[in-house]
Amino acid sequence: MQKEYIFYDNIGLDFPLSEEIELVKVASKGEYLVSNHPEAEAIIYAPEINFYLKQSNDTIAQKINNVTKLYAMRALGFDFAQDMDYSQEVGGKVLIVSEDASHEALKEELREDDFTVMLLSPSMILDVNGHIGDLHVTLKKEDELLELECDQIIWWNAPSFAMKQSGVYDPALLGLEGALKKLRDNKGEYHYKNYINYDPSICQYHERREEICGKCAEVCPTVAILKEDETKHLVFSHIDCHGCGGCISVCPSGALDYTQMPRIAFSHLCAYFKGATALIIPHKMDLGLIDIPLYEGVLPLMIEGEKYLHEAHLMTLLQTSGNPIIFYTDFISKGTGDVIRMINEIFERKYHKKAIYVCEDTADLARIFETMESFPECMYGINEDGLRKREIFSARLAHLVGDEDLGVVKAGEHVHYGDIKIDESKCTLCLSCVGACNVRALTAHPEDNSLRFNASICTNCTYCEVTCPEQECLTVVRDEISLKPSWFSQRIMAKDELFTCLECGMPFATVKAVEKIAAVMTPLFGNDEVKLRTLYCCAACKPKVMFKAHMENEMKGMNV
Ligand code: SF4
Ligand code: SF4
Question: Superkingdom, according to UniProt (predicted)?
Fold first, then answer.
């Protein structure tokens, strides 16, 4: 039976590899899943394998073991991936947008490749819509508005509104050859994937009366996520998505997940880092530039989207490895940046050590290797299957905090955690806030007529605050994580007795709710004793009381 992993040895490997790996001296083709070299064809090319072998200071026994892990990690990502393949037809209509009207040579070159070329000055273009293969350009010619259709655009120094559309390339960024390569590669059929999965049931924008989130659309560098404000629905355009994952790192609820590495796959992947230090490197970074010996126990982890990591990912990796994380990247997303700062502050308080290092050059990496310290005492395992992002982080952080009170840390500008306060004297237990909370942070407990709250699950969305019908009753405490046990468990926020119907004795509302309605209605009902009595009756008995009084009055009238 053919093996899944192929290792093309063009480096003169002087030790054996595990049996699962087909070791070849000549680049072979076959139905392999993971290879260490682009010439040894496989579904997945994993450059980190050769990088690790070249740079690692591990012993030979460790290397044999770790190379197998690097293959297995790639296979795991493949097995769990939830992406689908899509394609879009792309014709040959190209628009060149440039101040320079003399692009004759370029036009000729493109025509030779069977492109139809149009040339426009940027000052004429008002807007661009659509996507690669179906772009709509709105133009102003004298006083007339015109619409032009094309498949792709080359635009020198393109404005950001144009760069948000797929199929627009800027030679000032890519170089002219780079931009032309894109045009040629895309022509015919453009292949793309869905990089994000979306769960509207916990989304804080979806069908809310007020807009209290929309962070994913704000940080998306393209038009892949749009807010439809009329219906409060998010609209996803997978063809426009770069797969950077920035939206996932800022999504407070965990409604977004990365299809290439779903949360549960990441949790399994972390198991390979037990006792090791993860050196996270986004794919877009050039491994060839990281020419530095890796300290013993350092294992590279290549990630697809450079921006998707959030607090649950990072805590899982820290608590599984018992070692710090090093992020080698030239770009940190808003969400990941916030959680790195937050987690570092938490680890400093608990262990007086830094948890996550960020660097983008080898000099920094060398300094980190010198100073980093492990913290095996933080290791903790949970089964993350079926758990949401907040639930994973809450369970992990609660274990780290233990019985201590480590004070309060600030959440971030892009990552929100907090608390609520309820004035129990004003709360009627109407439970509007429970209905408003779609992440189960606020819950109703009929067994003791209480309203309870778990701060660690709350997304700080504030929808409960805007929904509460009472004045100054429920207040959201913004962006604070209280590092003490009570923050992680359900607290009783308000509680009441049930009021029993004066007629039938059935409990039908809380005492405070009945008293509140009675206080409002009593002056309106004046001396009408029947109406006043109905205030203390259940919905079924109210009409009976009214009807009985009516009949008695009728009878009296007949007697007169
Ligand atoms: S992954 Fe990046 S490009 Fe895609 S929707 Fe999210 S933020 Fe936008
Ligand atoms: S960031 Fe998450 S919760 Fe907020 S609107 Fe986007 S998907 Fe919904």
Answer: Bacteria
